[in-house]
Request: fold
Amino acid sequence: MLSVKKYLLLSGLIAALWSLPACQKEEAPLPSIAAIAVTNPDFSTLEDAAVLGGVAAVLSNPNPNDPQGAYTVFAPNNAAFARLGLNSGADLRVLQPAFLTSTLLYHVSGGNLRGDRLTNGASSASALGPTRRVVVRGSDRYLNGSKILATDVAASNGTVHVIDKVLLATGADIVQSALALRDAKVFVGPELSFLVEAVLYAELADALTAKPGSPSFTVFAPTDAAFRQLGQDLGVPLKVPADIRKLPKDVVTNVLLNHVVADGGKFNPEMNAGSIMPLGGTPLTIGAFANGVVTVRGKGNDAAANMVIPDVQTTNGVVHVIDRVLLP
Reply:
């Protein structure tokens, strides 16, 4: 029979041998930020965007401008891209390459920005330049207008947070942003052409241009299709942007002022159901906040306008592209 001493020695040896494989086993290295997108099917559109936008190689390597070699990326999932009608990599080709690259850079910042620092009112610089702000609504957190779905996904070269809408910023003021859309510098085809023509006709461009000390605005920007529909409703065909000038200038001016609110520029999570007062002086009705957006309705509208492209940050406010002209 084994003595107590020998039994304890033998038990210790067995335990040491049993634990040896676990001690020798190395943890698998963390994937890079780019590899996370490649291996997760929910980020397939983001993967395609990173390749087309020329940032995939950057996000595969350490950040040379950060002491820890880290990036922080707010990663839109496939559903986020689908909200903009971008359901596959092929759909991304409706965007100009330079705009796609700048959009991706707006999702990136240097260093590790941990989830516990994403508190209400906090701001975060982006690799594009414009800062982004955190908005807390109820129990949910948003970056600008994008809901933060998951935080602190660790990568070998930084941190990933998952969001439900693509972040958009132009790096220009409201007027220059609209001109970029009109001149097909965002999409490969023109957009907001009728709105730009209306602003020029009404001589409102100067008021919406960023200047020192000037206010920031929330702007509801109707699409070209919205203006064409308005023409049909009014019995005045609006086939090309110049047709806007068939309408009385004071009417166009009053309608445009109905789309601008001097409130500092608000993202969807910062807007509440109820009335807001645009520069035109006739209240707009904001609908309930649902699925990350609100609706907006003018007093003269039979139905509310929906957000086609919400939460576009400019240097002097926030633009929401909508599918209906708001009538006083």
Summary: The chain has two domains: 33-167, 174-322. DSSP finds nine helices and 15 strands in the chain.
